[in-house]
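Task card 7
Instruction: Convert sequence to structure tokens.
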Amino acid sequence: MSVDLHYGASNSLTIDFTTEQVATSASLNVEPIIGTLKDAVYSSLDQSIHFPAFREILFPGDTLAIAVGECIPRSSEILAMLIEYIQTYTEVALEDITIVFANESTASTQTELKNLLDEFVFSTLTFEVHNPDIPEELAYLTATEEGEPIRLNKTLVDSDVVFPICSNLPDSIFGYAGFFHDLFPLYTETETILRFRSHQNTASLKRDSMEAANMLGVQYLMKVTPANGDDIHNIIAGDIFTLQNSAPAIAEAIWGHSFSESDLSIGTLSGPYQHQTWDNLARAINTLARSTASSGSIVICSELSGPLPAPFRLLASNDAHKQLTEELKQQPDVDIQAAQEILRLRDEYHIYLLSNLSGDDVESIGLAHIESPSQINNLVASAKKVNCLHDAHRIAAR
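Output:
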């Protein structure tokens, strides 16, 4: 028996099993949308769930802010189709449309979008990358039950219509804020982002994200359920209250899986570089840990690259727990949540990483460096039971 696992933009490896081994796999072939992406986007906008068609809620003179969430598959193409739809069916002026990206990673979509749109159309649109560190680019909305302020991106607050494009994933995956994750805390201020990343309280995070969306006046949004890699399984748009009841079930049906414990779990991060992030690495390891026996082995296949973020450089110290705690007090960083999770799990499991990072960097954070996929089959050969999870960062282990 063999299992093909895809990772990164276009890489794959074949895992071979003997007849004596027990092998379980999940999410290897998530069905992509049927038909063209244009048909799927247009259909979701014209057949909105419990809401008028998108064309019927936009009027001449409206300012429109399109808020783009993290790791949305084929996001540049979705944006191109959306702009084409607006041009074709509404009288909203291009100069009144602002596309707001949650961060620099998400903003890389802008380069791809330039190649998909007419040059005049692209140059007339306004683009903005949310900066949580500039007070002038934030607007106060309300306060949490604990009295903490909720401030959101000013462009979103000031626009007549806000149209969020959000990922649709199971609520229980690590670091996920639930239905409104791609609005809050992504589009709030650094202090708020760090508060939830360093002291994650899922219940309060979901409560505050809903409050932020309600105060922002969001009534309508698009949810994109990913398939494998950069493919899309489903696109749905409509009334936020109805979608809160229907969209999560779609994600759970695709990405929720039950596992029995194995002594080795192998997971992948597939898709382009926008999906190869430290947050996704931490999510994948968290999920794989739930399917692995204590002191078992975890393997992640990815194309993660780039320099180590500051919190990860602290993992090399003998007192990393103390160092990260001090970092939180003195110079907090958005990558601390991922670093803390990897620090916690590396003490409980043997974690191996295939990536584009240098071996020295991988080993400095307490993980074992895999130089080539062939080494993974050596680990498999010595395991009695193996779980294989494609796109482990999207999977909710039940």
